[in-house]
Amino acid sequence: MLVRFVITILLFLLTFSSVAMSDEDRKKVLLINSYHVGFGWQDDITRGVKDVLKNSGLETELYVDYLDTSRYTVEQMKPKMDFIMLQKYKDTDLDVIIVADDNGLQHLIDTKMYEKAPVVFLGINSLERVDVARNLGMTGVIETVEFKKTLELILELHPNVERIIPIAGLSSTAKIHLQNLKIAFQQLKTDVQYEDIGEWSFDSLKKKLKAYDPATTALVQMSFHNDYFGNISPSIDPYRFFYQFDIPGYTMWVSHGIGDGMLGGFVSDGYEHGKLAAEKAMAILRGVSPLDLTVDSGTRVNYPLFDYMLLQKYGIHRSRLPERSVVLNIPQSFYQEYYGTIWVGLSLFVFISVAFLFAFIQMKDRDRLSKIAQENYDEMLIARQKIERSTILSTTEKIREECPNIDVLFQTLDKLERAE
């Protein structure tokens, strides 16, 4: 009884210690997003980070927080979020922090949260901020936005365009994008006009865009979640706003409406950027110093992206698109749409055909064998009859030899039967 009790206690202690060790070995990763759930770029980043952590082979625990600086201004959110984040994680032993976009990185710098754990940044547009972060021991991925390549796409695909209209919202990041787009445009040798529409509300923008000639105008959209007066887009899916105009619209992000209002652009992919940042974070968890990890420009995961339906609308053939182009919403052929059903049907047809052929061969073989057996049986009967006849004749001859008067005896008996 005592031995059983001791064994039970030992098993309990071993189980408890293994659970405690497992929790202690699990690496704590904090992802700070500058915006909110439902913001496409941010959702794609989060998905990319999660996929890398899942396949890393390391035991990790992911914390995700949002600063919500797209729906609200930085001035509104900063004091509250600085206090909340410091209080929330003051007693958490973080192993690495991943921070997405400029507002989030500035938050880490201002609150000195980078002192709690190594930091990997991504989605950063301000090179000055990257320099500050690097000097503080951080590494990460720059968001290299393909402004010039997208403008060149517009000029190449729309030779009749006379003006390009930039659209950006109120956020500090949108203002940086607007400035960089203008610099990129000035590097082009073109007579096309760059028309800044100034401060706009959703209502005023609608009126302004309706006044332009769609045949000679193109849009470059950089942010459309709120206008210059802080109003949030009235639509759950804001990019559908552009469907009411016939003006071709371009953007530089996968998540900014391509396939849902925007024609295309040379884009940055939040999912791929999230993966790049998470891979650096995993390297840090394996013991690599952040300073030994170079800052990635992110350009290797940028690519041209287009909406097939809008390419058709504006008469742009796919042969005119640049190399590595990805096209969304291509109509599927009957085979592409039902290929699973088609292959199941073909497989069943082949199986039934083979089974039928096998049964047919078996039946033919059975008929052939049956015929052979019948022939053998008939031959056997003939042979048996011959043997029996031969045996009778032979026996009769022997009897006659032994009894020469046997025939006379049979004739006498026959006469007696007749007489009776």
Give the number of DSSP strands.
12
Sheet with most strands:
5 strands, parallel
Low-confidence spans: pLDDT under 50, at least 5 residues? 16-21
State the helical fraction.
Answer: 40-55%
Radius of gyration, whole Å: 44 Å
Spatial strand sequence of the major β-sheet: 2-1-3-4-5
What is the element string, with H for helices and E for strands?
A: HEHEHEHEHEHEHEHEEEHEHEHH
Q: How many separate helices?
A: 12
Described by its quaternary structure, the protein is: single chain
Structural class: alpha/beta
Overall 3D shape: elongated
Beta content comes to: 5-15%
Distance between the termini: 113 Å
Mean pLDDT: 85
Description:
There is one protein chain. The chain is an alpha/beta fold and 420 residues long. Helices cover 51% and strands 13% of the residues. It is built from twelve helices and twelve strands. The strands form three sheets. The chain has a five-stranded parallel sheet, with helices on both faces. A four-stranded parallel sheet has the order 7-6-8-9, with helices on one face. Strand 4 (119-124), helix 5 (127-135) and strand 5 form a beta-alpha-beta unit. It is elongated, with a radius of gyration of 44 Å.
